[in-house]
């Protein structure tokens, strides 16, 4: 019986995770779910944003389902030493699981173009997979400091770090349209020069059937919304991927439609890309679609259950058509939307 560790976290995390858990129980009733603490609440209760008990629970987990961590800008959590802050708990979790490849799909489902603020002809058919490097770069390098009026962080990558995430991107592209765009800032940064060189060399050595091109991150920030259909798989380093994926959320219509899967060599981590949304937390109005779709990715990538994952994706699309949430200009609250997903799961597919 597969064991899934759930980590609801802070803000809207518990609200959207509860929805995803309901859906998981419906489509995978044999799975064991075990809830643990992470983030700001974990610090308040256990003095650590990634407590030892949570760390221990990962040992025999098959997959991890995460909500969100963090507080508002004026939260006391933001005045803690950095290693005690909620976000540090999340980064430590990613590192503990060794999840170096973060898959962030950006998809406009047929019939849901109207949810996008882009013109329907631009939004129609968009299907991008952003592969974000998740354990390296400026997020993790030890060389960082703030001291009086001076502060620095360093962005560092090694060839093995670049190659392992690029491999995931090439592999994904082989199952899709065979195109990879590697995004960097090689016109300015040495670290991007290495990134570009290593991605190209790997393509030339092992993935000759893949069409690879390189683009600068500033240009991609424009083109991804101006002409999103030009992209199939995008592979990029940690910080660029963080920013580009929130930007890309505009294409389907909301951060609440952006799930993710973080994969390494052990159990995967599945989480919506959005944050704890302190502005709407506790009101029961968060869009749980990204969390539910993350549970779908867990079924697909974490447990190898594609059929169940397809059922979830189809049900989410139906619920979005009939009961859009407030972030999408609709009126459905979290409960109504989740109910609609559960109802759609119970309705046999036609055709
Ligand atoms: N993976 C994570 O846990 C994660 C990711 C990003 C940010 N954060 C943390 O979350 C906190 C808030 O960050 P932020 O405000 O910059 O970003 P955010 O993603 O929490 O919110 C940005 C905006 O999007 C809206 N939004 C986000 N998710 C939504 C959903 N599911 N349904 C409806 N609306 C939604 C919010 O209401 C807000 O207006 C910070 O502490 C930050 O560090 C955590
Ligand atoms: C909360 C933060 C550490 C995190 C990140 O920057 O990776 C978030 O923005 C994300 O996109 O998952
Ligand atoms: Mg982010």
TrEMBL record:
Note describing how the cofactor binds: Binds 1 Mg(2+) or Mn(2+) ion per subunit.
Sorted UniProt keywords: Amino-acid biosynthesis, Branched-chain amino acid biosynthesis, Cytoplasm, Leucine biosynthesis, Magnesium, Manganese, Metal-binding, NAD, Oxidoreductase
Catalysed reactions, as listed in the record: (2R,3S)-3-isopropylmalate + NAD(+) = 4-methyl-2-oxopentanoate + CO2 + NADH
A molecular function (GO) term: 3-isopropylmalate dehydrogenase activity
A Pfam match: Iso_dh
Positions of Mg(2+) binding: 218, 242, 246
InterPro entries (UniProt xref): IsoCit/isopropylmalate_DH_CS (IPR019818), IsoPropMal-DH-like_dom (IPR024084), Isopropylmalate_DH (IPR004429)
Binding site for NAD(+): 275-287
Location, primary (coarse class): cytoplasm
Domain spans labelled Isopropylmalate dehydrogenase-like: 3-341
EC number(s) reported in the record: 1.1.1.85
Cofactor(s) essential for the protein: Mn(2+); Mg(2+)
Keyword ATP-binding among record annotations: no
Superkingdom classification of source: Bacteria
Pathway info: Amino-acid biosynthesis; L-leucine biosynthesis; L-leucine from 3-methyl-2-oxobutanoate: step 3/4
Residues at which substrate binds: 94, 104, 132, 218
PANTHER family the UniProt entry points to: 3-ISOPROPYLMALATE DEHYDROGENASE
NCBIfam families: leuB
Protein name: 3-isopropylmalate dehydrogenase
Organism the protein comes from: Deinococcus navajonensis
The encoding gene: leuB
């Amino acid at each position: 019986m597969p064991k899934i560790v759930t980590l609801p976290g802070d803000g809207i995390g518990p609200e959207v995770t509860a929805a995803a858990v309901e859906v998981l129980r419906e489509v995978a009733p044999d799975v064991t779910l075990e809830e643990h603490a992470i983030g700001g609440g974990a610090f308040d209760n256990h003095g650590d944003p990634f407590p030892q008990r949570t760390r221990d629970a990962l040992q025999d987990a098959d997959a991890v389902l995460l909500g969100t961590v963090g507080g508002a800008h004026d939260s006391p959590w933001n005045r803690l030493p950095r290693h005690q802050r909620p976000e540090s708990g999340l980064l430590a979790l990613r590192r503990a699981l060794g999840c170096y490849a973060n898959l962030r799909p950006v998809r406009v489902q047929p019939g849901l173009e109207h949810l996008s603020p882009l013109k329907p002809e631009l939004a129609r058919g968009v299907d991008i997979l952003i592969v974000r490097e998740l354990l390296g770069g400026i997020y993790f390098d030890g060389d960082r400091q703030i001291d009086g009026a001076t502060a620095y962080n360093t962005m560092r990558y090694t060839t093995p770090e670049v190659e392992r995430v690029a491999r995931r991107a090439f592999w994904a592209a082989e199952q899709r349209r065979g195109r990879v765009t590697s995004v960097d800032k090689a016109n300015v940064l040495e670290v991007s020069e290495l990134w570009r060189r290593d991605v190209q060399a790997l393509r030339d050595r092992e993935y000759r059937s893949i069409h690879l091109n390189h683009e600068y991150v500033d240009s991609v920030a424009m083109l991804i919304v101006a002409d999103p259909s030009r992209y199939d798989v995008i592979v990029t380093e940690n910080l660029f991927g963080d920013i580009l994926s929130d930007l890309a959320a505009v294409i389907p219509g909301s951060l609440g439609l952006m799930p993710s899967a973080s994969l390494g060599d052990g159990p995967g981590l599945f989480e919506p890309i959005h944050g704890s949304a302190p502005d709407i937390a506790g009101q029961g109005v968060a869009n749980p679609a990204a969390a539910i779709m993350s549970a779908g990715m867990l079924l697909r990538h974490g447990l190898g259950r594609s059929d169940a994952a397809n059922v979830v994706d189809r049900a989410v699309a139906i619920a979005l058509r009939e009961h859009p949430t407030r972030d999408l200009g609709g009126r459905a609250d979290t409960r109504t939307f989740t109910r609609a997903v559960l109802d759609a799961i119970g309705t046999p597919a036609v055709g």
